[in-house]
Structures are given as structure tokens and as C-alpha cells.
Amino acid sequence: MEIASSLVGIAESVTVVCNTDEPLPALGPDIGCVIRNRFEAKGVRVLVKEEAACLEGGDVVLGVTLKSGLTLAADVVIAGIGVVPPTDWLKGTCIELDERGFIKVDHLFRTTADWVYAIGDAVSAPLPLWDIESLNIQHFQTAQAHGQLLGYSIVGRPYPTQLVPFFWTLFFFEFGVRFAGCAQGSSHVIVHGNIADLNFVKYYFKNESDDWLAWLDK
């Protein structure tokens, strides 16, 4: 979505294809719908519940055919396909991987091999403040925080603070959203403000308690 917004005014046309009900599903369909409407108002075509089946053309791409049968003419195709950890070489070693291939580490970023540490996108690590035993987060802020905390682990000093995941984005250099925390396991939300105007704060709570898990705002 960020790349699509940056291409408006440069490309003749821009189309975004999402395989979900709305863009940015992790933020919730209410926010995804508003973001989609904003993109469409800027001239970006957003197709939801669609998937790419194949690229058309030989050495030069000419288009994308979707599973629905629709073919989109294209000069450039950018695919956001997520992260697959390059950890096959660790299979069968004393370093344990989870079911998706991420390196399992403890709260000190220790692997299951003595004196071998791991951090960043390739690991699945605990989030102590949320009582989560293992979670993979693919964002540079988390990787940076891992590096800072690992320094304390190696020298045997306590962490000054625990990791709080933080994410932000900016579209068209005009509007965006910010998210802090981890909404995994949330049971209900409270919204202050107006999501339709992207002027809001959204809190995620767990089990009807006063313990907030995350917040999201413009």
C-alpha cells in the first residue's frame, strides 16, 4: 500500500490486489475499508478478495491474470508475499526451529544451542508483557530493539525495559496509522474518535479487563 501510494502521479494507473476482505487486515476491516476508500479517492484501483494466478508476457511482463479470470495490463508488478526464513540449513542441527521455520529463542534471545543467539525477522521470540511464549514479528523496529536488548543479555545485565512492538505507516505523504503493542488474544476494542475521518484511537483489551493490549491511531 505504501508503494502504491508513492506511485500515484508517476504511473499512468495503479492497481492494488488484496486476497483479504479489506487491505491491512491486521488493523481490522473497519480501518481497512477507510484506507481503501481513501486510496480509491486518490485514483488507485483496489481489488479485494482477489489473488494473482500468473504473470503474462515473456522476458517483459505485460500483465497479471487473477484467479477470477480478470487480466490486468501492467508494465511493472510488485508482489508483497511476506517473509520465508532462510533457515533450511539449520534443519537437523541442535538449533530448534518452529513449525514455520523460524528460529526459536528464549527471553534472552538464546537458541537451543549453547552460546548461540539469534534476533530479527528470522526468530520467534517471547513477548513477556503479553505473556506470549513465542511470536515472529517482521518489522525493522522489532529487529532494532532485539539488537539493543541482546547487548544486555550477552553482558548479563537486566533489560532497562521490555520490548513493545511499534509500527507506523504513511500514505501519499498525507495520512497514516500508528500501532503499538500486540493485539493477539484481544477480546474487544474501544474506539475514541471517528475512524471514517482517520481521527481516532483504537484500544484492544483482553477478557473484559482493564489491561490494554495495544493501541492504534492516526
UniProtKB/TrEMBL annotation:
Q: Which GO terms describe its molecular function?
A: oxidoreductase activity, acting on NAD(P)H
Question: Which UniProt keywords are listed?
Answer: FAD, Flavoprotein, Oxidoreductase
**Family listed:** Belongs to the FAD-dependent oxidoreductase family.
Q: Where is the FAD/NAD(P)-binding domain?
A: 1-147
Cofactor names? FAD
A GO CC annotation given for this chain: cytoplasm
Give the InterPro entries listed for this entry: FAD-oxidoreductase/Apoptosis, FAD/NAD-bd_sf, FAD/NAD-binding_dom, FAD/NAD-linked_Rdtase_dimer_sf
- Provide the protein name: Pyridine nucleotide-disulfide oxidoreductase
